[in-house]
Structure prediction request, 232 residues.
Amino acid sequence: MDAGLLPALSLGFLFGLQHATDADHVVAVATIVSRTRRFDAGALIGAFWGIGHTATIATVGMAIIVFNVTVTPAIGLTMELAVALMLMGLGIFRVVRAVRERSEAPHPASRATRGLRGVLETVGRAQAARSLGIGLVHGLAGSAAVALLVLSTVRSPYAALAYLALFGLGTIVGMTAITALLSLPFTAPLPALNRVLALGTGVLSFGFGLYLTVQIGFVGGLLLGHPVWTPR
Prediction:
């Protein structure tokens, strides 16, 4: 591989770390992290999100880079709208769940079981699947933009795919760190505070999703029949 490509490829990992901090990403995973009471479980939620996100980025990116698939403004905005609607759904689900949990006993942090198996048992299959699914949907919003950015920087298809792989690794590492930090307030045995934070994440997720829906549907013109989309 050309040594001149190494700096560009290394940027893929750094951009992946930065991409994980996007507001819509953090808001979405916060609705899931708010249900955990363990630091390591919170970190694993981010890892599952990152894996799902990377899978979509790789699939869509490969289609664009290798098969020259064209992403029209309508398609690009539709993928972003899917994320906005998902955020609204996550917000509603989290608020309803938090209200129902009001009369339930608090969930104390259990003694850690050694190894990855113990973390998986703590997170639960449903939580892991939800994190993975959210990551898959989130990948739709940024995959086309990332692939188009790569093509404007790296001409070799193999180097472009390597860039996507490093970008994906960066998002996994970045989101794992973010969700681990987000889980810290929920590890405290303070059920009242935990419920307020859970309600807050739900309201924030719904509100941000609604804002994005308006921006995409009306400002971006998707719902008005004249979509204008700038990959970013």
Summary: Confidence is low (pLDDT under 50) at residues 105-110. The chain has one domain: 13-105+118-219.
